[in-house]
Specification:
The complex is a heterodimer of chains A (411) and B (441).
Chain A (H helix, E strand, L loop, with lengths): L1 H13 L6 H18 L5 H16 L7 H23 L7 H9 L4 H29 L14 H26 L3 H17 L9 H4 L6 H12 L9 H8 L4 E7 H9 L4 H8 L1 E3 H12 L20 E3 H9 L2 H6 L3 E7 H8 L1 H16 L8 H27 L7
Antiparallel strand pairs in A: 1-4, 2-3
Chain B lengths: L1 H9 L4 H21 L11 H9 L3 H23 L3 H33 L4 H8 L2 H9 L32 E12 L2 E13 L4 E6 L5 H8 L6 E6 L2 E2 L4 H4 L3 E4 L11 H12 L6 H14 L15 H13 L5 E5 L7 H16 L3 E5 L12 E7 L5 E8 H8 L4 H8 L10 H13 L1
Parallel strand pairs in B: 3-8, 3-9, 6-7, 7-8
Antiparallel strand pairs in B: 1-2, 1-4, 4-5, 9-10
Helix pairs in contact in B: 2-3, 2-7, 3-4, 4-5, 5-6, 10-11, 10-12
Classes of the chains: A mainly alpha (411), B alpha/beta (441).
Chain lengths: 411, 441
């Protein structure tokens, strides 16, 4: 038995073994770190900072504040991440394709080569993500503090941006493995970018047939994820109110009968009118205001007269006043009389309570525009992370499979 | 249904297009017959484009053109069958893009046709705009004849086969290559045939052959990188059967300096040693080997330099050093002296001679053999036979090669076996046959 064991040990010693896949990853990772320094691969870092600065100049005002700001901000960050990721790796394999072929011939494992790229590119994407978040913050983007998954939103957001960058990076790595020259890779690149951006599904409204294509883009899931993290659904939508504000000076007017006005004011169909009728008016304050406008001196207030806070306030609803006025026989006499009304949008808004209308419009449009895909829940965000991560791994696998056929290249 | 059939056969179902395509088919029938291709190919959709390209000597373009034609045909059928506007658009946009690419390929093929038929460029416009007109004229006009015919690549000359094999030896390199074939676009091509030889250890061998004779294919077949129908053994080990182990026994130095320019000489060699040397070699021994190899190839003074900063000769030496690290028994070098001046090339070859003198086999491809021929023991001459297959026209000592070919210089030997259209004497078949007889005894 001992003899057999000894023989086996001897045979093991005689067997010549070369470096396996794991050890080769180390060799190539070291090589890539040197390339980072010597081959100017470091240039992608300042480039990432510059891109982030340019983008944040546009998004900083409304990102995390309004619904529109969240959507454009999310889209801009997705664009930045995809751009960074794509340009990190688009040339890395094709520029040294012949060298890879030679080394593969000398015993290099393609899986080790791709795995070392995966590690190296992950570090690069991580650095770019940190730079992007820092530069955006420094340029005035105000990140909310609390995150959904971690206690800090910047960390949550960082994970998303990293995953989008990394998945795009792996997609480009695949393109680089397919392309035989850098020219070919750079020719394909714009198509990849345009496909990702057009079919992101959030910004451009796509026809139904094209909508399915967005299921295959990293940008679609990236946009959903950042929009969810920015709490898109629960932030006010301001575009409708902003449009209304721009037409404040526009005059409105026309000829109506007193009866038509009374019917409108007493109608139960319009919620806003019902709420207006239910509004309480302080009679004292109204009286004083009227007297003041008429140039009369109003009597002392109840408090000033020493009646104190216990004195009952004389309030009445708008509806009660209207009922009194409109049910009056003298009003019936003038019911069919024509009145020419002339006002502005601003005056109408003022009459209805500008702040109330603003809040109402913003809330209502926000509710209508809410998107279930942007739901601000941990489950939604983690699900999207997993999908983007899956994309990254799938692309890396495709790159590996593609490069395994490098020996079939035409000489 | 009829319309779909018309699209498949003629590319369109409009009457005028069908008529024009039918006329083109008729013209192609005549042209194919003139070029030595069966005329019925003209009736086969897509394939007729490939055959036309073969008539023009543009086989590769023809492959792409016919594949594009097939895809365009499918898209056209899809476009015809599509029910909604969106679907039609999905078929129309790629069809349009493909048509542009097809046009470019058609222009390339047309260029070849003009050359083969010796016609002026003005004909090119007709070929692109109304191809049926020149096809009919060239197909049936008696004064329009192609300068050469398409060769039937399936024909294989059998009379020149030596039937000789070499006995496997416990040392040295034994090659018994029956054939190396490749299938391109459903056609089997013979790249190499009937190559048998035994190279002794310590021999430095010159590999000669004209362009396209199959030198690189032969090297790749020998080192097992591209397997052929062959038995190749090195020092008793089966290169094909035990490739994983044997690949480290063979060092192949490619023609170009395939190294990362932005890495240092030392790191390039260290990484190469990690890849090529066995795991049981300790780190210290590996470093010592790297230092030793740097000394041998005169790279120690530049060990810290970036590869891109090295001179042409230094780059060549580094490229060889990378393979030399693992101490292979068989060394194959593809034009190691390209880009080097006479003195540097001589120095490099002398270095290779020293490697051979250590008992290793060194096979070198070079296009300037005469300035270093005294360093070689044997010469392999590969030549393209009349079927354009790479064959062995000679293997043996240099001096005997001179007698066999009746030429003093190696470059003259290459000229003797090169085809006439390449500026050679076109005597490849003669020498292949004679050498087959010599081998057969």
């Amino acid at each position: 038995m001992a003899e057999i064991r000894e023989k086996k040990a001897q045979r093991r010693q005689l067997r010549i073994r070369h470096r396996g896949r794991l050890e080769q990853i180390g060799i190539y990772f070291g090589k890539m770190l040197r390339m980072f320094v010597y081959q100017n691969d470091w240039k992608v870092l300042p480039m990432a900072a510059l891109i982030a600065a340019l983008v944040s100049m546009v998004i900083r005002k409304n990102f995390f504040i309004t619904m529109e700001g969240n959507l454009t901000g999310s889209f801009a960050l997705v664009c930045v991440a995809i751009w960074n990721g794509c340009f990190n790796s688009i040339q890395v394999i094709c520029r040294e394709r012949q060298i890879v072929k030679r080394e593969h011939r000398s015993g290099m494992h393609i899986s080790s080569y791709i795995a070392s790229h995966m590690i190296y590119q992950a570090l690069l994407c991580l650095a770019q993500t940190a730079l992007t978040l820092y530069v955006c913050g420094a340029m005035g983007v105000k990140y909310p503090e609390k995150g959904l998954i971690t206690p800090w939103l910047t960390v949550d957001l960082g994970i998303t941006i990293f995953l989008i960058s990394y998945a795009s990076d792996m997609l480009s790595l695949w393109v680089s493995a397919i392309a035989h020259t850098t020219t070919a890779a750079m020719t394909v690149m714009p198509f990849v970018l345009i496909f990702q951006l057009v079919f992101s599904g959030g910004i451009f409204s796509l026809p139904a047939w094209a909508d399915n294509l967005s299921q295959f883009t990293i940008s679609n899931y990236g946009l959903k994820c950042i929009a969810a993290q920015s709490d898109y659904n629960n932030t006010p939508m301001v575009s409708v109110w902003n449009t209304l504000e721009k037409v404040k000076d526009r005059e409105l007017g026309g000829t109506v009968t007193a009866g038509q006005i009374s019917d409108l004011l007493m109608s139960d169909k319009l919620k806003a009118v019902s709420e207006f009728r239910a509004r309480e008016i302080d009679l004292d304050a109204l009286l004083r205001s009227l007297m003041k406008n008429a140039g009369l001196t109003p009597p002392e207030t109840a408090e000033a007269a020493g009646e104190g806070e216990d004195a009952p306030r004389k309030t009445v609803t708008v509806g009660e006043i209207l009922e009194q006025a409109l049910n009056n026989p003298s009003f019936e006499a003038v019911r069919d009389e024509k009145i020419t009304v002339k006002t502005t949008v601003g005056e109408l808004l003022e009459a209805a309570g500008e702040e109330d209308v603003k809040k109402y419009i913003q809330d209502m449009t926000s509710r209508v525009s809410a998107n279930p895909d942007y739901e601000n829940t941990p489950g939604n965000v983690i699900g999207l992370w997993l999908i983007i991560g899956f994309f990254a791994l799938a692309y890396a696998l495709f790159a590996m499979i593609t490069l395994e056929f490098i020996d079939k290249d035409k000489r | 249904m009829l319309n779909v059939l018309l699209i498949i056969l003629f590319g369109s179902y409009s009457t005028s297009n069908v008529v024009m395509e039918a006329l083109l088919i008729a013209g192609l029938y005549g042209m194919f017959n003139k070029s030595g291709i069966a005329g019925w190919w003209a009736a086969v959709p897509c394939a007729r484009n490939y055959m036309l390209a073969r008539c023009a000597g543009k086989e590769e373009e023809g492959r792409v053109y016919s594949v594009l034609g097939f895809v365009t045909m499918l898209l056209s059928v899809g476009e015809y069958l599509a029910s909604t506007e969106n679907l039609i658009m999905m078929f129309t946009i790629p069809t349009f893009a493909l048509e542009i690419i097809r046009l470019i390929y058609m222009i390339r093929i047309t260029g070849g046709l003009l050359e083969v038929y010796g016609r002026r460029r003005a004909w090119g416009w007709l070929w692109v705009l109304f191809p049926f007109i020149p096809a009919l004229i060239w197909g049936f006009g008696k004064k329009y004849q192609p300068e050469w015919k398409v060769e039937d690549i399936r024909r294989v000359s059998r009379e020149l086969i030596s039937g000789h094999t070499v006995q496997g030896m416990s040392d040295g390199l034994t090659v018994n290559l029956e054939e190396r074939t490749a299938t391109e676009f459903f056609q089997k091509k013979y790249l190499l045939r009937d190559i048998h030889m035994y190279v002794r250890p310590g021999h430095m061998v010159l590999l000669l052959g004209g362009s396209g004779a199959g030198k690189t294919t032969f090297i790749n077949a020998v080192n097992g990188y591209e397997k052929a129908k062959a038995r190749v053994s090195l020092n008793g080990g089966d290169i094909y059967g035990d490739y994983k182990k044997m690949q480290y026994e063979v060092g192949f130095v490619p023609q170009q300096e395939l190294m990362r320019g932005k890495d240092t000489v030392y790191h390039t060699l260290t990484d190469a040693s990690k890849l090529r040397m066995p795991l049981n070699v300790s780190g210290e021994d590996r470093t010592a080997r790297v230092e030793e190899v740097m000394d041998i190839f005169g790279l120690t003074p530049v060990k810290g330099n970036l590869v891109e900063k090295l001179s042409g000769g230094q780059k060549k030496r580094l490229s060889i050093a990378m393979e030399f690290l693992s101490n292979p028994s068989l060394f194959i070098l593809d034009e190691p002296d390209s880009g080097l001046d006479g003195v540097m090339a001589r120095e490099l070859m002398e270095q290779l001679r020293k490697i051979a003198d250590q008992g290793k086999i060194v096979i070198v491809i070079t296009h300037t053999p005469d300035r270093v021929i005294d360093l070689f023991d044997d010469v392999i001459v590969l030549a393209k036979d009349s079927e354009r297959t790479g064959r062995l026209a000679w293997f043996g000592p240099v001096e005997e090669a001179r007698k066999f070919f009746g030429r003093e210089k190696m470059e003259q030997i290459v000229m003797a076996v090169n085809r006439k259209e390449e500026g050679g004497e076109g005597r490849a078949d003669e020498f292949i046959g004679r050498f087959a007889e010599v081998q057969h005894g």
